[in-house]
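Hey,
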Amino acid sequence: MPRVNRSSLINPDDITIVHAVAKTSRNLFLLGEEFSTNTDHSHRKDWVFSIMEFQCSLMAVDVLDFAVMSNHIHFVLRSRPDVVKQWDNEEVARRWLTLCPRSKKRRLVDGKMVYVPCPPKPARIAALAADVEQIKKIRQQLSSISWWIRLLCQKVAQKANFEDDLSRGISSKADSIRW
């Protein structure tokens, strides 16, 4: 029997504490030692921690506890919609555009081209802050546990794919990392 969607269990207007698990695709050992191929990806656990810190600085989701295993991550998270309600529209827009940047600059790092997010421009923040319907939606997303996990997994997978040269199409698409 399939699990019930998190969105049908969690009221977005209530402070909620949940235990959540994010598993890697095909149970691959993408965050630790892979014994079958004799590769070690333990350094990726540091990525998880730094991305969690970054997201917690911008979103109204508290990490109460977590454990990063080789092929999955356990979280105890608390949503804080009460905190987001205190932010004005410009603060909501600034946080969202910092969390999900619209533009990136290319830089050469260790012989590889990387894309570094650009900080949001005041005009873009003001334009988003004026869109009342969009701000209402973003307020819910900034305190959503589902969005928090989705963004974390997406960012870790993108970094891992880049590290494995999968994001540039060198390997087959079937081998790319998904959560």
